[in-house]
Design goal:
single chain
């Protein structure tokens, strides 16, 4: 996976569109299906339609998942899909963080490549999502990693990262 330039304004606009679609479809589907189920099967039950309402919400979630599958496949949502996949990759890296930190302490080049990609990807996601609270801490971690890479005389770039590197980390 490679980092790509993403227009923050377009990204935020499309995320907002996706959120509005989610809320509207979930609300409309859940309420309409719940009301239909209550009208058809709820007359014998006084006031307790929990399971019928629950089925309405589950139906709404199924419809939302189908809508997401269709919408995210469109070129219009390329930025949102890219960030979603980037966050998935960062999560994969996070699940290896214990081993990763041990290998970084041992100056393992593969671990340094993974950490470098992860920190740069985190910075991009933080900037896109306006997560400025921990940006100073992140920049400090990037600076420390850059110093370690320089001290070791390595030439590491974002392009060096391949998802397969995680599997080689545990060896």
């Amino acid at each position: 996976m490679k980092l790509q330039q993403v227009d923050k304004v377009i990204y935020k606009k499309r995320v907002n569109i996706l959120m509005v679609i989610t809320v509207v479809v979930l609300l409309a589907t859940s309420l309409s299906v719940s009301n239909i189920l209550i009208a058809l099967f709820g007359s014998g039950v006084d006031g307790d339609h929990f399971w019928l309402n629950f089925l309405g919400v589950v139906t709404g979630l199924l419809v939302i998942s189908m809508v997401y599958k269709v919408i995210l496949a469109k070129p219009f949502m390329a930025e949102v899909n890219y960030v979603r996949n980037l966050k998935k990759e960062m999560n994969r890296i996070y699940r290896h963080s214990k081993v990763l930190q041990e290998k970084i302490a041992e100056d393992n080049e593969t671990a340094l490549i993974i950490a470098y990609f992860n920190l740069k990807a985190s910075k991009q996601v933080y900037e896109l999502d306006n997560n400025t609270l921990t940006m100073d801490e992140l920049n400090e971690r990037i600076r420390l990693l850059d110093e370690q890479i320089e001290r070791l005389g390595l030439d590491i770039s974002i392009e060096d990262y391949q998802p397969e590197l995680l599997a080689t980390l545990k060896q």
